[in-house]
Amino acid sequence: MLFLCSACNTITEHLEPCGHVLTFRYDYNMKFVDAFPQEVKKIDVYVFDEDNHYITTLTKERQPSDGALSIPLRLPEGKYHFIAWAGLYPRSYDFMHPFGTEKITPELLHVKVLRSKEGIQDTELDDLWYGEATVELTYDRSRVVVIGLTKDTNRFRIVVQGTENMDLQPDDIHVSISDCNGWLAPDNSLLPDEEITYRPYFQATADVSGAEGKRLPAVVSELNTLRLMETQHPRLVIHTSNGEVLVDIDLIEYLLLTKMEGHQMPPQEYLDRQDEYALIFFLNKD
């Protein structure tokens, strides 16, 4: 959260009061640069006063070519709490609460990823971000309120490479990630949830031999998950169509091994900044 202020020079008593603007930044990523203009298409900001009384909702949809986004804040002087969810589309998330706007409280602004009755999630999710800010607005100076966003979705591209001339088809390889991370609280922590099994929304075969007369097959799978937490123990499991388990690992421990030595940051910060992973596994002839 960042506040930028500038004084208002009062020349006559008929001047309009200073204006305030709400804007957003997504630089909590591995490139440490603001990717909000390129990535975020929709944002919903819920505004509460200092007593957590609901004031209004600010919603904007945009195209990546639109550049930075600024929303004028036409609010009386006072203290306010902003809770922002970006990328909140009903095709991916459950956020349809059965209450009128006058009954909204911060505690009700939780988000659940959609899944089947059996706890299966196998569709491509809309990217999701979270942010919040608390600020006091006065009209003796203008203020730019910047809400920093954390990305809550992760994408995995998993390659299982076979041996030369092996007959390997997409149906031969089953990939899944299991975790209890499908329900996000209004502070972006995890709420107690059932175990979700994330399965590929895309799967295909490829030949990576690069030589005529030879075939080196690989099965490529893409799947996504919601926010990964250092304290959780999701499992990445890869097995064959006949039930043989090829991989069964603690995903968090494995992903933390991908952090470069030069990245001096705590494990949770790395998991929050990194949002795409490519993992390769090799089959042997046996």
Automatic annotation (TrEMBL):
Gene3D superfamilies in the cross-refs: 2.60.40.2090, 2.60.40.2100
One matching Pfam family: Mfa2
UniProt protein name: Protein containing DUF1812
Species: gut metagenome
